[in-house]
Specification:
The complex is a heterodimer of chains A (237) and B (180). Chain A has 237 residues and is mainly alpha-helical. Chain A is 68% helix and 5% strand. With 180 residues, chain B is mostly helical. In chain B, a hairpin with a 5-residue loop joins β1 and β2. The chains are: A mainly alpha (237), B mainly alpha (180). At the A-B interface, β2, α1, α2, α3 and α4 of A face β2, α1 and α2 of B.
Chain lengths: 237, 180
């Protein structure tokens, strides 16, 4: 049994060899699942909502409210994006429960999302201050702060992506290690069946797969909202 | 890095670099996947649900404004009716007052009429009585004088002349009066 990065396989598309990782395939499965879920929840919507519709409305209003509170009315257009990040991240981590490799345990995934947030922040800054004002912002409050400002510019996407990746991947590794250790313990106790592996990994799984998945998805989205929101702050607010 | 258990058996390999490898195709595909999911969530979930929510909130606000309007109308009608009612009350009070006044006047008139009529009746009756008394008096007088003549004729035994009559009568009456 190996704890390792995602598998890669190559697909031949129109004579072009494309390398596709396990993560991407899991991502497709999640997209299909979420799409099906949305279609199921929003099927035949009425003015007086059914239970299914209420769930869809609850999701939308919760995200809308969160975006409104964190980013202000001006940034309401970001709500679907934030919902996308949250759902992709949440389900990307939760697939570990059904035995698939968590999407978010692949650094490329969290890095992509962190870079998306990063570029959005920069774009908002440039839009708000103009290129000149944006570049000038690095020399503030004093000129010798410029290197530090540039470092901190690149630190935020790295910390954002590593936090999420590290939590999920670390959880995966720890669960695996504990599982091995318990198997070893069972063998050392002379049990033919690894009885020690019953129970403890389940508790760990609740923490790492459920709690950590929800927490990290929430933290990632919250931080993205705060970064973009503060970069795209409106004058009147 | 290899994981070795207590008895020295090789159990697992952790490929650290595998874990942290940055792969361009993965990034591009993740980007595409995220974009696809974004479009799905934006158009299938948010736009549709937001539309329904907006329609509902519009519905509710129109319902509320309609209810407010109806309430205002009802209040206005109530005020109108109250005004009409108080007017009617005033009018009826006026009518009753007038009627009472008229009746009072009428009754006063009737009473006054009755009084004058009664006075007239009393007056007439008094007059009648007076007349009757006078008539009776003269009748009695006549009768007395006739009786006196008859008596005198009987006493004297002869017919009396008119002057004698009168003398006799006067004497008689005087005597009668004295006797009385």
């Amino acid at each position: 049994m190996n704890v390792q990065g995602p598998h890669y396989f190559t697909v031949d598309i129109l004579g072009l060899e494309v390398k596709i990782s396990e993560t991407i395939v899991v991502g497709w499965i999640i997209i299909a699942f979420i799409t099906a879920l949305i279609l199921f929840l929003t099927h035949n919507m009425q003015k007086i909502p059914s239970k299914r519709q209420s769930i869809a409305e609850l999701i939308v209003t919760t995200v809308n409210k969160l975006v409104l509170d964190t980013m202000g009315k001006r940034n309401m257009a970001f709500a679907p994006y934030m919902a996308t990040l949250f759902m992709f991240s949440l389900f990307g981590s939760l697939v570990g429960l059904v035995g698939l490799r968590p999407m978010t345990a692949d650094y490329n995934t969290t890095l992509t999302w962190a870079l998306l947030t990063f570029f959005m922040v920069q774009a908002c800054n440039i839009k708000a201050n103009g290129i000149g004002g944006y570049l000038k912002g690095f020399t503030e409050p004093v000129v010798f702060m410029t290197p530090l400002n540039i470092v901190s510019l690149f630190v935020s996407p790295i910390s954002l992506s590593f936090r999420h990746f590290g939590n999920i991947a670390g959880g995966m590794v720890i669960t695996m290690l504990v599982y091995f250790a318990l198997t070893g313990l069972s063998t050392a106790l002379g049990l033919s069946v690894p009885l020690a592996t019953i129970g403890i990994p389940a508790v760990l799984s609740v923490y790492f797969d459920l709690f950590s998945a929800v927490m990290q998805a929430f933290i990632f989205v919250m931080l993205s909202m705060v970064y973009i929101g503060s970069a795209n702050e409106s004058e009147e607010e | 890095m290899n994981l070795i258990d207590l008895s020295g058996n090789f159990i697992s390999t952790v490929k650290i670099l595998d874990f942290l490898s940055i792969d361009a195709s993965s990034i591009i595909f993740t980007l595409i996947n995220t974009l696809i999911l974004f479009l799905v969530i934006k158009y299938l979930l948010f736009e549709r649900v937001n539309k329904v929510l907006e329609e509902r909130s519009n519905d509710i606000s129109t319902t509320y404004s309609k209810a407010d309007e109806a309430m205002n109308n009802a209040k206005k009608l109530e005020a109108d009716y109250n005004l009409l009612l108080s007017n009617a009350k005033e009018e009826s009070a006026e009518i009753i007052k007038n009627a009472t006044k008229k009746a009072q006047i009428h009754s006063d008139e009737i009473i006054a009429q009755a009084k004058t009529e009664a006075n007239n009746i009393v007056l007439r009756a008094n007059e009648e009585i007076e007349r009757e008394r006078k008539r009776t008096k003269s009748e009695i007088k006549d009768e007395i004088s006739e009786i006196a003549i008859i008596v005198a004729e009987k006493v004297i035994g002869k017919e009396l002349s008119k002057t004698d009559h009168e003398l006799l009568i006067d004497k008689f009456i005087e005597n009668v009066g004295e006797l009385k």
